[in-house]
Amino acid sequence: MKKHNFSAGPCILPQEVFEKSAQAVLNFNNSGLSILEISHRSKGFMAVMEEARTLALDLLGLQGKGYTALFLQGGASMEFLRTPYNLMKVNGKAAYLDTGTWASSALKEAKNFGETLIVASSKDENYAYIPKNYSVPADADYFHCTSNNTIFGTQLKEFPVLKIPMVCDMSSDIFSRTLDFSKFDLIYAGAQKNMGPSGTTLVVVKDAILGKTGRTIPNILNYQQHIEKESMYNTPAVFAVYTSLLTLQWLKNLGGITEIEKINESKAHLIYSEIDRNPLFKGTAHQADRSCMNATFLLNDVAHAPLFDSLWKEAGIEGISGHRSVGGYRASIYNAMPIESVKVLVDVMKEMENRV
Predict the structure, then answer these.
(1) How far apart are CA 334 and CA 173, in angstroms?
(2) Annotated catalytic residue 193
């Protein structure tokens, strides 16, 4: 039976990416060697790294605009730490928008470096909405936000216009929708949502914002060191970078971000329309702030959970249980999720209505 993987991450990737990466595990570029055993300094992999970094900038519309793309390790959680290390001045301060678990985690790391200010928070409603009409202090060293909140199913639709650097954790919606990415000075995203397997993190940084903190930064945490070494300061996650390149190539061949955005909007409309129509279900996020990547919802009567769970399992659906901290259900519909799988879930929800 075909499986429909709605996992929040590590998540589904395009079928052709699975096939090409599997072939590379056996024989990379007809070299007679596996991608898992080649040297990260070999010409073959150096070309992979260069193309992946270049293609990331191209897809974001940032090529030639003073940005560098890096593939680093440690996940987005490492960038929670690297951000203040590289951007917060000695005795400085930073502004954070608190929209969920990962935003809060980023804030906790920054508190170790200086003053932190929460410009707004949606914690009062268990992060079911995105705060609006907040102001960011002009004397902050940077402003940090999280574009999409996987656990609570919310997504920023608008971003402030600032004169200070804007940092954004785009781990769960990178490359999914058109934005003016030049508004951001630092973007980071764990690969395991829209780009590849876990193990590498894309960091896109505007070169001009670095080197201004007045603090000593350990080399492994210093963006300037990674830029100088072209993402080769330490041994990179070779397989994760290669698979990310394959996914970026797939996206480019599809038509880029503008085309995938249309597909993503269709998938989101399909699932949210059923959540709103079906009397057995209700969405958890405010409608205006609903994520196009993670649709979170509940049963109106938890007594129906055993039946619903049996139906979606019988349909070959996987990974739809909500995050352990909130419960309910979560359908993660990242770039590679085909609309046919979303239709299977919607059909199960309709069947559920007929059975009750």
Answers:
(1) 8
(2) yes
